Amino acid sequence: MADSPESLNTLDISRFLANQSTPSEDRQLAASFVQLAKDVGFFYVSGSESLVPQELVDEVFAYNERFFNLPLEKKDALAYTSCKANRGYLSFGREQASLSKDPDQIGAEREAAKDQKETFEIGNDVDPEYPEHWPNEEDIPGFTAVRLPCARGRSLRTLTTCPQTMNRFHILLDQLHLRLMSLLAISLDLSPDFFVPQINGRNHCLRLLHYPPVPRSGSNNRIGAHTDFGTTTILFQDDTGGLEIEGPSGSFIPVVPKPNTFILNFGDILARWSNDALKSTVHRAVLPDLKPGEDPSAPTKTRRSVAYFCNPNPDALISCIPGLEGPSGKAKYPPVVAGEYYAQMLEAEIGA
Prior knowledge:
Low-confidence stretches: 105-110, 146-162
Keywords: Iron, Metal-binding, Oxidoreductase
Pfam families: 2OG-FeII_Oxy, DIOX_N
Shape: globular
Helix content: 25-40%
Strand content: 15-25%
Largest sheet: 8 strands, mixed
CATH architecture: Sandwich
Protein name: Oxidoreductase
Number of helices: 9
CATH superfamily: B-lactam Antibiotic, Isopenicillin N Synthase, Chain
Domain Fe2OG dioxygenase: 201-312
CATH class: Mainly Beta
Family: Belongs to the iron/ascorbate-dependent oxidoreductase family.
Order of helices and strands: EHHEHHEHEEEHHEEEEEEHEEEEH
Number of strands: 16
Structural class: alpha+beta
């Protein structure tokens, strides 16, 4: 991979998602998918609108703004309390992503590395153990699921729970994740449903992110250099910019926003699962570049993004995929229980 923005490819999955592709085309797409997973670990994906409509993505971004515009006391009432639950509001500066990669930061170095963002974490809303921290319906109508008349074919049945914005988005992105993981399985000469028994619980985190305007005279950091922890991350970003990935030389490459795409990257659990055949890439968010005509003494533009962190089921035992042991014939990593591993990694950077 060259250390330039042009090295990030775009993969079109429209025919695959619409079930219009042939088995030969699927294998070719899967080969491109796994090559990008091995070489870069980050790429753009287009053509997902048949499953995840752009109108829904736009609505989620509108709710991102409405949620973070709530008074602080209303957001604090929904505060994040547990890494095992991984739900609720994380206030500005609470998380420090770089600690997962550099836990020995101390003093001024540690303070300077604090992430300049606030987030809201949403899980699987039918989890019996960990309830969601939903805002009140009167504060943000339609944010979650409410009981409304719902169309069922040509009939109309009342008092049926309809997935509203966030729950609908969570469900559709889970379906997208399952399709993407089937591509990965095909590329590794595995059955398309190889991963399904260990990823079918919708144990994913939908994260709304808000990076408020900050002075350019301070830290350039918005979220420190880190890797993600799960299998894949589906990221939608606004047009502000600032996301960067680490290239082979150690320099950082801008991931420039592209309309009607999302970013796909791979996480640590998938790297372990594949014996490091698939790449979990270090990335960060920094202040956006100064654009022509902008006042360098003025605060930066607000940045918003929406991430869907995909994870195996909590009880899934992650051990090396057969055939990926490498020349030594031995796995690099011992088996781990996915839920325990994920919680430990979150605790390292959040501390709860």
